[in-house]
Amino acid sequence: MTRLLDLFGTELSTLRGEDLVRAIRMSEGRTTLAEIVAPRPQVAPPASNLELVAAFGADLVCLNMVNPEAVQVTGLDGKGFYRLSELIGRPVGLNLEPDMSPVPPEYRATGDNARAAQDAGASFVCITANPGRGATMAHLATATKTFRTAAPEVVTFAGKMHAAGGEEIIDAAAVRPLLDAGAQGLLVPVPGTVPGVTEAGGQEMVRAAHDHDALAVGTIGTSQEGADPGTVRTLALAAKRIGVDIHHIGDSWISGVASPENIYAYSVAVRGVRHTWSRMAVGARASRREGEWG
Hints:
By secondary structure, the chain is of the alpha/beta class. The protein is 38% helix and 15% strand. The protein has a single domain (4-281), classed as Phosphoenolpyruvate-binding domains (TIM Barrel, Alpha-Beta Barrel). The protein starts with 8 loop residues before the first helix and ends with a strand.
């Protein structure tokens, strides 16, 4: 299996299931994931926000507030996950939330929505909670188990990027039910984002994920994706120190997307300009086999 760092075009965009997990693991903490709010206006039309984050170096793209039965991204007419992945040459996934009343039905991690996401070609799902929902780790664990049962081909990440309106402490003990429920990746707030999450505590959560043979996804979900690049680089290196496998950058700069300059700054901080520029420059239809471009 080739590391994700060295995959491009259809070889990257078609990664699914355990192949995607292995390719990320082999990249040794140098995989980036950008999140966008799918229905928000474009920052730089005619480019969609999906294309924008890919152009600035994201390896994976997660759509927030998207209906898996009718995938819509502003600036791109009704395309499922397969077509979106093909368009940008990257795996594309989605956020879903627990099946609870504050969450609109189309954004819930129900069996029907899970099957719809899998059928539409989603590469991965982040089961988490948007601000103010009041979701608990128990809610997330139930949603994780439901999704894994209904859509086993979709890689399942789960956890909290912030308190989401609740009062739970986010630590290794609190996240263990998510791993027991079958999460293939654990969301770990990057130290410096959520109050009280230190590097020592973050490292314990990463260790818990790895002990369960799961990936650790370091998250910035506190609007700091819109901070200055120096702050973002500091967070990126904190995430590296605690050992995360995937670096997530959230969607709360303006118009439901991170600052493109911060996506770039984060990528350079965790893997240097060579891998960042390669990801930015190589076209969606390119592929690389045995050192040759085709």
